[in-house]
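Two proteins were folded this term; both appear here.
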Amino acid sequence: MTSLVIGTAAGLNPYVALLVTGAIAGWTSRLPIAPELGVYGVGTWRLLALLAGAALAMDLTLGKVRRFAWLMRRLSEASSTVAGAVGASMVCPEGFPIWMAAVGGSAGSFAIAFMISRIASHGARSARWVGMGDVPVLMGAATSGAVIIPLAVVLPLAGTALAILIVVTVASGALIVVRRTPKTPFQSVSGKAEPARPTAS
């Protein structure tokens, strides 16, 4: 499995990425750990999975409450940098500088998380979704993140191909929503409520 897969998953949902990665590393032998991190026992990865699971539960509940949605999304974006760095470092190939994998994973994960926020914010402003359009976006992102890591463990090429497809889809979606502005007031995951100015379609 490549660092790209875990980095992508961390951008989609950092808690899911750490939960799945930690569980596979802690309870199975299917995930090849980088030699520099091999000194840490399975207990470390199991603890990581448990902590990520607790954080995920908070994210899936409070993140859907309008009062806390903005804060939880900002925390998710910040956590994506950590999750991307940790995940990419865990599967860093032997001989490749681990710090480069960490920096690349962190930057890539944050970029994906930022684009997810833009798409979710657009969904929250959509009249068709009565102000709840961010929920399917964020839930879809979390589900995708949970799928690609186990898939990459079993079928590396398929998992990597799916991760690339997801990155392209998210980037395309973010580009599309930048060009559109819904005509309804909103309270979104990107900030405080304010009216959106209509634009020509």
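Next, the second protein.
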Amino acid sequence: MTRTSLQYITDVKEYCDFILSSLAGKSYEDFTLNEILIPAMERVITIISIALNNALERDTDLTVGMKNTGRAILYGNHLLKTTYSEDPNVLWDFIHKEIPIIKSEVAKILHNKDILHCQTPTPT
């Protein structure tokens, strides 16, 4: 089964939600002391990067609504190619600065596509 760009964008939103809910109420110290949390967040960011890349391969018009896509893809590719955990400061900053923006951008895309899909054509 071939996936559509919107399916990938939906995945991105769900993974952004997962990251933000997983870290809700956690301090930086909580984050760095949890041995499983850092590699888990790295993995999820890598999945977001792959999903964004796949969505953009199928629909290049998506870049219009997504300003932080390139940064997310590059950072995810970097995480994918490294065999060590990222500096927790860099990861923490990326999560808190970029993930909410990416989530907002993909939510707008999904909302706009939903509106377009629900509109009925006007008779001529």
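The CA atoms of residues 88 and 96 lie 12 Å apart. The helical segments are 5-23, 28-33, 37-58, 69-81, 88-97, 99-118. These notes refer to the second protein only.
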